[in-house]
Amino acid sequence: MVGGQPDARFFETLAPVALADLAALTGAGLARGEPQARITRVATLGAATSDSVTFLTERKHAADLTECSAGACFVSEALATHAPSGMAVLVTPLAHAAFVAAANRLHRPRLHPAGSAAIHPDAELEEIVVIGEGVTIGPGAAIGRGTRIGAGAAIGPGVAIGRDGYVGPNAVIGFALIGDRVRVHAGAVIGEAGFGATAGPRGVIDVPQLGRVIVQDGVTIGANTCVDRGAYDDTVIGENTKIDNLVQIAHNVVIGRNCLFAAHVGVSGSVTIGDGCMFGGRVGIADHLAIGAGARIAAASGVAKDIPAGESWGGTPARPVRQWIRETAWTAAMAQRRAGRELEG
Q1: Which of 90, 231, 300, 329 matches a 20 to 30 Å C-alpha distance to 1?
Q2: Which domains are delineated in the chain?
Q3: Is the pLDDT confidence value at 221 over 70?
Q4: Which residues face 75 on adjacent strands?
Q5: Which residue, among 247, 304, 296, has the nearest Cα to 275 in the 3D structure?
Q6: Is the dihedral of CA 332, 333, 338, 342 positive or negative?
Q7: Is the pLDDT of residue 268 over 70?
Q8: How far is the CA of 24 from the CAs of 15, 20, 29, 30, 126, in angstroms?
Q9: Which one of 112, 251, 264, 288 is the catalytic residue?
């Protein structure tokens, strides 16, 4: 997102909606506010302005609502008292679901227009761009000099790709800003919606993903790897980071420079990774964690808590590698002794 709102290169902002209509759409009660006041966009608590609607679901963020500048907020009755006096209050037990409905009403992803040329006339291609057979490039996309696009690749509306890059056959890139000298190998998918869901009035519903993917210079992304766009913030991959095949990077992940990811690594949403980190194959990382700069994670480890900078961890759950080796050796020794006792008996 840009300035707390969806990037216009990737998302259309639709007609404003009156608070009364927003209440009717979401099933919320308009407890406070002018019914005909207009809302033009959705925003998170920290980025909301007077023309936007936000939401609050957890008491631990109530102080953020108190300082928020949103025009309106979806909130439960128990938390409604935290809304500032000038803010319209839309009371509902399903505040997040109501926010999702508002987002879908006010914003829509841009699509390649039906019936238009495969390479849209509004796309901008610098000289010496090589385009393979069957490539699709959407309106407003920009591709820098010397970049090669493999057969069957799809470049979505508004996507920017820098100079001297490479996009492999059948790769799909949308909602993304890609730097210079970036290599995206065959079948990779960058910018698809992240995995976001919440409870709705009739079951689980998808949460719209209104962020982007930012890939800095010199990054390599392996074949069939997926990098999800952010939910409300951006997913970011830092300079010169190298990602192997079949890796999953979830929404809102921020990766530093010069990191290495072996195949089958899975990084859950909103993880922050410092510069120079290394991940062995099949490492799994739980959401909302911080991995310090220079950390190294052994293959097949399951990371469930923050890792300090410069440390080496392994195992499931992952812990400092010396501790993991001692515990593994002790477990093996105990198993061997038990087996010996059973043979003696």
Answers
A1: 90
A2: 11-109 (3.40.1390.10), 124-321 (2.160.10.10)
A3: yes
A4: 56, 91
A5: 296
A6: positive
A7: yes
A8: 16, 6, 8, 9, 49
A9: 251
How many other CB atoms sit within 10 Å of the CB of residue 15?
Answer: 8
Report the chain's terminal Cα–Cα distance, integer Å: 68
- pLDDT > 70 in the chain, percent: 97
Quick one: tokens of 210?
Answer: 């209104």
pLDDT digits (tens, 9 = 90+) for 164-217: 999 999 999 999 999 999 999 999 999 999 999 999 999 999 999 999 999 999
Two tokens, residue 101: 């409905």
Report the C-alpha gap between 167 and 130 in whole angstroms.
Answer: 10
Q: HEC states along the chain? A: CECCECCCCCEEECCCEEHHHHHHHHCCEEEECCCCCEECEECCCCCCCCCEEEEECCHHHHHHHHCCCCCEEEECCCCHHHCCCCCEEEECCCHHHHHHHHHHHHEEECCCCCCCCCECCCCEECCCCEECCCCEECCCCEECCCCEECCCCEECCCCEECCCCEECCCCEECCEEECCCCEECCCCEECCCCCCEEEECCEEEECCCCCCEEECCCCEECCCCEECCCCCCCEEECCCCEECCCCEECCCCEECCCCEECCCCEECCCCEECCCCEECCCCEECCCCEECCCCEECCCCEECCCECCCCEEECCCCEEHHHHHHHHHHHHHHHHHHHHHHHHC
Distance CA 74, CA 116 (A): 40
Confidence of residue 112 (pLDDT cuts 50, 70, 90): very high
Backbone angles phi, psi at 61, to 5 degrees: -105, 10
pLDDT tens-digit map of 273-327:
999 999 999 999 999 999 999 999 999 999 999 999 999 999 999 999 999 989 8
Is 82 designated active site?
Answer: no
Residue with tokens 């990766």: 255
Q: Please choose, from the candidates 295, 289, 259, 248, the residue with its C-alpha nearest in 3D space to the C-alpha of residue 272.
A: 289
